[in-house]
Amino acid sequence: MASGASDLVLIAYDGSDNAKRAIRHAGHFLSASRAIIVTAWEPLSRQAARISGLSGVMQPGWVPDTAAEDAALADARVVNEEGVRLAGEAGLRCEGHCIETVTTVWAAIVDAADEYDVSILVTGTRGATGIKALLHSSVADQVLKHCHRPVMIVPPCEG
What we know:
It is built from 6 helices and 5 strands, in the order βαβααβαβααβ. It is an alpha/beta fold. It has one domain: Rossmann fold (3-Layer(aba) Sandwich). It holds the Pfam family Usp. It comes from Lolliginicoccus lacisalsi.
């Protein structure tokens, strides 16, 4: 990787096998001074509101316990810590960050790339094709379309 302003790699990590593969490839092919492992999460109250809106049925209001940590954030932290560990094993000096998704996962990742002023963004992809790809847009595809930085997309393993 050419020496840039920051030589910082952002790796989107969700705990999937494809995300693990992306970390291994980043460690193998990129030589950067640092990496940030980013895990996007959505608060449970927002997930509940989104899902109830999709059902078309009015749901009773839910007020989350503000004294307790959001379970979605707790899960994201566990996933992110795994990503940091895997990145370290892949030879990357890194730190982890959990970022709250306000609109979409891809937008949170692109915003984080801008906030941290990264040199390149790395993500895995499911590699969906055909009807499945038409019905459910890939986060990696949206990152590629909307990020104004170099993006490395690691496809899933064949098989």
